[in-house]
Amino acid sequence: MGQDSSPHWAAAMRDFDCLSVRNGELHIEGVSTVELAQRYGTPLFVFSEWQLAENLRRFHEAFAAGWPGPVDVLPAMKANTMLAIRRLLSRQGAGADIYSPEELAGVLRTGVDPERVSVNGGGKSKTHLRNCVEAGVRITVEDVDEIELIQEVAAELSATAKIRFRVKPALPNLWRRTDFSQLSVPIDLGIQVYKSGLPPEYLPEMGRRVLAMPNVELVGIHFHAGRHHPSLWYWEGMMVRLARLIGELSREWGRWQPLEIDIGGGFASPRDPHNKEFPRSEFLLTALGYPFLVGLRGLGDRAYHSLLSRILAVLTSHRDPKAPPTIEEYARTVTGVLRRELPRNGIDVDGVRLQVEPGRAMYGDTGIHLATVKKVKRQSLPIPYTWILTDTTYFFLAGGVFEHNRHPFVFVKNPDAPATQTADIVGHSCYADQIVLGAPVPEVEAGDVVAFLETGAYQESSASNFNSLPRPASVLVDGERSELVKRAETIDDVYRRDVIPERLLKKPASQS
Ligand SMILES: Cc1ncc(COP(=O)(O)O)c(C=O)c1O
């Protein structure tokens, strides 16, 4: 691939990739994205079956290579709720991390092994807990009073509920800045203000109560903190503190030994778009530079706007992001630290089941999002600017908006064409809808198709209908074959839940 077409695209090429360029067109597996756009229309989500299987295989093999006991991969359902995708995973023996009753209902339709399903979430209702016990899934406890409700439900069903505690250790060793916040906040603080997880002060007493319950079995410990930092340093720090906490709890609970340890998700996907839209230094720069900027107005309109556009170019310029570690490096770090630290804390690792719940790292690079250029709009005064207006919107890539993602992109015909201009690639909702701000792009015109990469996780599942825009279809590619796995919404779908009360359908009295 050419180095100068787009820094994001150049950085995007790697091993284990479902994407390639053949005959001057971007392909996903054996299918041309140009043909996909023609056949299914745009906007369109496209997923690679091969990439999904490959990611699952790598996660499983990498963790199994470093761990003495059994290993399960439990991809997070929230990151991709499509049933065809889920069915592929269930068929290959993957479990699932589930958040809501609705995700549980979905995953159970796909033939998943319930023993490998972890149901998270605070405020679980009695009905939800009953469904969990009946289905035989693991209940990952998030609330202090949840255990009494579980005992009640399990007793009513004459069953044994297998539960784990979702813990939240203190992590003062994680002092670097979290990527989750635009502010400079240490990871430790970022994790503490996250609502999920049982505060450590309740755990000793909760454990003692559960160990005395006739219908509840405490089988393990769960910990998920999220993607705060893409480094191995982050995983080393988390695993050290997790092992220490498990050791402390074991001593509190009369040498209790976990049968399962679930380390959650939070590992970066290979092109890691997370929080790359606004480099933090720019925030500081703009905060400090703002009074100076406003002061420049004294130079007169022309000089002021000319300086503004130069400053803007600096503020929106991006460097290629550093690649995160590989799945294998991540697994080696996690298993290595746990094997070293758990025995030091009195825990025997032999036979302990290790579970991992990748979301973005499982699905991110399995998906691309195709959109068509509707217009190229330019202005030269008062500041020069170019917008590439597409037929999609960042409301269809909403997961990325929440997390300030900068998705790598590529124009699917002649991806090697050199970048000749800087433009914002924007969507067609009435918001600013900046999908990629300050993008280095080649010459493009209406009708060209752009692919946003690394959109397989959280994007389709968080798409919304702002401006009454119907959400796009999804297509699954397998070798040379493509199939629709979710149809596009129609205008009837968009307004399906609306009800106009009968009285409003009558003519107003003043008109009758
Ligand atoms: C409990 C749990 N596990 C796994 C995940 C997946 O996280 P990620 O997509 O960062 O891997 C999440 C995401 O929020 C989660 O809450």
For this entry, give a set of tags.
512 residues, alpha/beta, TIM Barrel, 17 helices, 20 strands, globular, binds pyridoxal-5'-phosphate
Give a concise summary.
By secondary structure, this protein is α/β, with parallel strands linked by helices. It has three domains: 7-48 and 365-495, Lyase, Ornithine Decarboxylase, Chain A, domain 1 (Beta Barrel), CATH 2.40.37.10; 50-274 and 324-363, Alpha-Beta Barrel (TIM Barrel); 280-315. Helix content is 34%, strand content 20%.
Report on this structure.
- The chain has helices spanning 7-12, 33-40, 49-66, 83-91, 101-108, 126-135, 146-156, 187-192, 203-211, 232-252, 280-295, 301-315, 327-344, 360-363, 398-402, 491-495, 502-505; strands at 19-22, 25-28, 31-32, 44-48, 71-73, 96-98, 117-119, 138-141, 161-166, 216-222, 260-262, 353-356, 367-379, 385-390, 409-411, 421-426, 434-441, 449-452, 473-478, 481-486.
- The chain is globular and about 75 Å long.
- The chain is α/β, with parallel strands linked by helices.
- Helices cover 34% and strands 20% of the residues.
- Strands 4, 13, 14, 15, 16, 17, 18, 19 and 20 form a 9-stranded mixed sheet that branches. Strands 5-12-11-10-9-8-7-6 form an 8-stranded parallel sheet.
- Pyridoxal-5'-phosphate binds at residues 76, 79, 97, 120, 224, 226-227, 264-267, 357-361.
- Residues 76, 79, 97, 120, 224, 226-227, 264-267, 357-361 line the site of pyridoxal-5'-phosphate.
